[in-house]
Amino acid sequence: MARHPLGGERLLNLAASSKLPQEIYSNSSIANLLFNHPDQKTRILAGEFFRRSDGAHLSLTEIVQLKGYPDNGADLFTLHCISCHKMGDRGREIGPDLKNIRRKFDKTALADAILNPSAAVTFGYEPVMIRSKTDQVYSGFLLSEGTTTVIKDLEGTLHTVVTEDVVEKEILNNSLMPDPVGLGLKAQDIADIIAYLQVQPIL
Ligand code: HEC
Question: Is 80 near ligand 1, meaning CB less than 6 Å away?
């Protein structure tokens, strides 16, 4: 991947050689830029040095080395994930169905998707906000945009607006998926959820 203007790589090289002042590691704006960096290596390395929004230290390299317990992961998945994700016939269809996710993602990529949801938003799930001529505002996912613009909101309801009547459209940068701090997950919880996602039979 090409170098990114954020200069994440240089910053992390300095961090690795302990050349940065201590305060920087608790600077949330810098940390957020790095956790949302387009390059996966930069995101992974950032987790080694930088703290998350509540000061938690969640390192991807540590998480993938933990032994995960799929049964516990199943409980955590029911608690934190099925409000947005389908797993077989359970769950809601706000995010992608995760039944066959282990075919798409290995352990590292799964950990990255859970740790840094806004870094690489799945195609088709970029959140948008539109405002119509009559001042109605809808936010959710853009399903189609031809003569009509169709938005699916977080309840799963479809809203159709004639495209000519859309006066404002904003693509939101952040995924609608909360990060693990928002979900209250610890390193072992994430390892357990990953183990659960990895034992699903491929259909
Ligand atoms: C509030 C809704 C919401 C919750 C809660 C949520 N997610 Fe998500 N998730 C999404 C959305 C929306 C996407 C697609 C956008 C993106 O990639 O960030 C997504 C994407 C993902 C992806 C990438 C899927 C792909 O095909 O690229 C994984 C893996 C994932 N979520 C796992 C989880 C796990 C595990 C949990 C529970 C710990 C969880 N999510 C909780 C909404 C949610």
Answer: yes
Q: Which domains does the chain have, with CATH numbers?
A: 8-49 (no CATH), 67-120+177-198 (1.10.760.10), 127-171 (2.30.30.520)
pTM higher than 0.90 for the full model?
A: no
Q: Which atom belonging to ligand 1 lies closest to the Cα atom of 190?
A: 38
- Residue 114, ligand 1, Cβ within 6 A: yes
C-alpha count within 13 angstroms, C-beta hemisphere, residue 25: 19
94 pocket-lining for ligand 1 (C-beta < 6 Å): yes
Q: What is the DSSP letter of 95?
A: S
Tally the residues of the chain: 203
Please name the residues in contact with 189: beta carbons below 8 A apart, sequence gap of 6 or more: 72, 76, 180
Measured between alpha carbons, how far is residue 154 from residues 92, 112, 127, 147, 172 in Å?
10, 23, 10, 23, 14
Nearest-CA residue for atom 43 of ligand 1: 177
Q: Give the model confidence (pLDDT) of 95-148 as tens digits.
A: 899 999 999 999 999 999 999 888 878 877 878 889 999 998 888 888 888 999
Cα-to-centroid distance, 17 and ligand 1 (Å): 34
